[in-house]
Specification:
By secondary structure, the chain is mainly alpha-helical. Helix content is 83%, strand content 0%.
Length: 513
Amino acid sequence: MYIFTYIDRTMPDLIRQLTKNIFSSWTSLAVRSIIVFLVNPFIIHTLGDERYGVWVLVMSIINYMIIFDFGMKQALTRFISKFLGLNDFKRINAVVQTAFIAYSVIALAVIALALVISFFVLDRFNIPPDLLDTGRLVLIITALHTAINFALYCWGGALGGFHRFDISNALLIGEDILRTAAIIILLKSGYGLVALAMVYPAVILIRHLVGTVILKRLYPQIRFNLKNRSRESWRMLFNYGKIGFLISIVWLLIANTDHVLIGYFLTAGEITLFSIAMLPVIFLRRFIQAISFPLQPLISHYDALDDRENIRRIYNIAVKILYFISFSTAGFVMVYADSFILLWMGPGYGVSGDILRILILPAAIYLPQAVANSVLFGTEQHRRLLYVLLAEGLSNFILSVILVGYFDIYGIAWGTAIPQILIYLIVMPAVIHATLKINLKDFYLSSAFSALPGLAFSLGLSFLLLKIIPPVRWSHLTIDAILTGGCLLLLGRVIMHGKDWDMIRQLLKNRIG
């Protein structure tokens, strides 16, 4: 049901397609996580610490170039899904062709910048002299990978805008598997960093070419003709994308604030302690994003039809489900934080468990509001999201600077947690109220009836299992997690009842063709 078995040429049932999109996103996340967990040690031991360090440095530099997207991907998803809802392929073609020209210019700029960094900047880093030339070549090759991704995204990467995240995720899974297999073969054959780097542009080129063929098969109305570009499309993409670009910058600053402040006020070792604590939060965020991101084209579709009622239903149901998931997960993590850290990292990292307990409950509050992000992007109200993120970033920075002087690394954690609680419990619901006219009283009651039973049940059951099956081994922790998760699934089925199921059934009947 959840993995596509054929290419449907017709407009899909949007809710059924959303289900496929979400589960394919989870599958892609699971595959990528397994690959990283199993293959990274092999790559590190094969290359050696110095060569792998050069690889990480180069990839870090390249990752900053992704910001040159200027919010175009979000804009493409918005306008493709909007005009698809109106069955207006003339404007879809204009948007795609215009974005292709813009992305081609960006791709050339990425390569030019990589050349400048390679020959004039890279030698300023602490790279061993015998690896400097290799590092330069690797940087140029990986920049080519990024350039190809930019230039061909409109064709092979924009399937999500057509509600086909299932196909897009299948292609990503195929890319991950093919790239990993090629890397293992090359490294086992005695090749090094340069060969490792060359795999990336080769495999992403294949993925985008296959995606382009599938897109053309799905929608023969898509024309590869540069004459279809238009100034109107450029204005739409730019006006929408510039806010997305600013949002990306703010997100980047928020994501790095904690580590930068720890590095400035404390020590590099404490950055490691904080990073370890952040890992479960990152995995929970990716899991929830796998639900929230595919909602954006669906919301854009309904917005094009001026159907705010269905958008409200989608928001209310999705947030209720995600609050239950996030608070239930938070309860388990709060109980098992120390055990998880000890099994994963060994003794000496108890501080990471304490920090994880500080961060996980605020994460349970703010992560479900990823649905709000999709609503704001999907309805072209994402300027409001920019203001919310600016408020979070500034308050996070100021509060962390104040608290670190009193509580060291714990002050950084609380400086992150407190703004998240206040902004996503009060400010973001108010923003969504202004956008969708939701009833805030009903929203808070519904969220509380979803989140609090999940948290209380998870805490109680986790404490009980902790005593019955102490997690002294990974197998014991896994059993505890499975038992807790199974019981929570049953509780979730009880909580989601009545009007919720009526709304879901009504949404499932909606077919837009």
